[in-house]
Amino acid sequence: MTRRKPMTISDILTSPTVVDLITAARALGIGRTAAYRLAQDGDFPCPVITVGGVYRVPTAGLARLLGIDPADLAASTTLPPARPSDSDRARRARRTNRRRQ
């Protein structure tokens, strides 16, 4: 298992409007399993929304929790396009494989 580098303030400022739970957990230094458990129990430290059974975290709420002014998010001009997370790609691949069987 590879450890991902911690997120920087710059990473957060250039994140899409909504990030996956694992990205938010990485920013907070929370492990994957703990993040999902906290989200399921409604105890994740910032707002979490569920979209089609997938947890998403608004970047503004994450930034607020970390003491980053959400206005800085709006001022950031180089927002990358949203990309599906690794877990989203794996989930889609499993669904496709099930349909083929």
From TrEMBL:
The protein's name in its UniProt record: Helix-turn-helix domain-containing protein
Organism in which the protein naturally occurs: Actinocatenispora rupis
Disordered as annotated region, ranges: 74-101
Biased composition range(s): Basic residues: 91-101
